Amino acid sequence: MKHVDFNTVATSAISALTPQLKTAYLPALDLDLADATEEEAIVSLLAPGRRRAFFMNAHCCNIRRQDKDYANAIAAADMLLPDGIGVELAGRMTGDKLAANLNGTDLVPALLTKAARQGKSVYLFGGAPGTAEAAASTLVSTTPGLRIAGTRDGFAGADNVDAVIDDINASGADILLVALGVPRQELWLHKHAHRINAPLSLAVGALFDFLAGSVTRAPKWVRKTRMEWVWRLAQEPRRLAKRYLSGNVSFLAHAGVKALGQLSMADFQRRFLDIVLSASALILLSPLLALTALAIKLEDGGPVIFSQTRVGRNGKEFRIFKFRSMTVDAEARRASVLSQSDREGVCFKSREDPRITRVGRFIRRFSIDELPQIANILRGDMAIVGPRPALPCEVAAYPTRALGRLAVKPGLTGVWQVSGRATIGFDQMVEMDLAYAESRTLLLDLLLIARTFGAVVSGRGAY
């Protein structure tokens, strides 16, 4: 009778049921990072099985370049989570955009909330004496049902490794949070993870300090602008100056060099052209932008900017920015006007669309509504020249051939835009975009940019 290894069978069964977290390779960092929403990351972290997860920010990447042992610890981790604006910028250097900023200060409390509902317990190891206990007290008061399996400081409490591991294992903790600082916490877990029973272990940096209140976190509006590092620097300038000032410059310089190595000369020239022209346009057109914003606000008091999800290069979604040219309830009314489309195919366009405002008709006639997309170009979501950025529902209805237009970045202008815009049917638009994708050159881009001015003045197909 053939021997059956039930442990192997069980492991295989768990693996089959475990959600596979999507990752993205960032060439500028030479790293595979989680490309997921917060909820997707939490589900994957709490799924059956053993895993070790680290957060990667600019500081971590700098240390990884200098410390071979730390680099090995990072390579051995089961999950690397993107943390901070630096990593996001490094991705954009090569046109890669991650789904979310998964910093530990936001993600871990949300993870523990879900873990508490599942009856899981957590052990806090690290921080100055008393910090882990204070952090645990905060978590208990803010997370209903959360069980604290134990706490231990990262100073005298960390001296005896065997005692630390015995205490963690005796506690029966399901989750281990280690806050010993980078790179010590990652090195500690890399060396001792095989002796720890807790299925999930995370290196969490300064999380305990934030939870304990010994370090004040930046206000939400600062975090929203992705400038939390400036707040931290202002709080501890002497300790963090090197890390955030020279460190950030070093990080971006190395990431930039790596990113350039991934680009052809044509891609580099095209991106350089995008940045120079869009930045110049932003400055020169600032009076027009301000007047347009004022006109929109005065007409109905609604938002000035309209933001919408569009599909970019290789099917990657992004948020496009436009001046709002329709009523504030336009999205809710879209289904009711689909039958009025003047175009054949999946792309909706109606000359008599009742949702367009008076100001909207004027700014559409002269393509002023498209100008906020300069920000999309600077961010790397779009190029100056490329196919029209499509809605996800439109892409979902694409025939197979039309998917080829997603091979290049969408553009503010392009062959379709200078050839008649809405007067051109969907199938003809697709053929134009495919031809551009196959034969685009810098000279062609410059010619299309030049033709754009005539197309804007004529207003053909602009409604």
> Largest sheet, order of strands side by side?
4-3-8-7-5-6
Q: Compute the average pLDDT.
A: 88
Work out the count of structural domains: 2
Radius of gyration: 26 Å
Question: Per the principal axes of the C-alpha atoms, what is the gross shape?
Answer: elongated
What's the number of extended β-strand segments? 12
- pLDDT < 50 stretches: 1-18
What class, by secondary structure content?
alpha/beta
Sheet of most strands: 6 strands, parallel
How far do the termini sit from each other?
76 Å
Strand content: 5-15%
Number of helical regions: 22
**Percent helix range:** 40-55%
Protein name: WecB/TagA/CpsF family glycosyltransferase
Keywords: Exopolysaccharide synthesis, Plasmid
Pfam family, one: Glyco_tran_WecG
Organism: Sulfitobacter faviae
Model description:
There is one protein chain. With 463 residues, the chain is of the alpha/beta class. It has two domains: 6-230, no CATH class; 265-458, no CATH class. It has 22 helices and twelve strands. A six-stranded parallel β-sheet has the order 4-3-8-7-5-6, with helices on both faces. Strands 1-2 form a two-stranded antiparallel sheet. Strands 9-10 form a two-stranded antiparallel sheet. Helix 3 (58-66) crosses helix 4 (68-76) and helix 12 packs antiparallel against helix 13 (237-262). The radius of gyration is 26 Å and the shape is elongated. The N and C termini lie far apart (76 Å).
Summarize the structure.
With 463 residues, the chain is of the alpha/beta class. The protein has helices at 6-17, 38-45, 58-66, 68-76, 85-92, 104-117, 131-142, 161-171, 184-192, 207-212, 220-224, 228-235, 237-262, 265-284, 286-300, 330-337, 358-365, 373-379, 392-396, 415-418, 426-439, 442-458; strands spanning 23-26, 31-34, 51-56, 79-82, 121-126, 147-152, 175-179, 200-203, 305-311, 317-323, 383-385, 411-413.
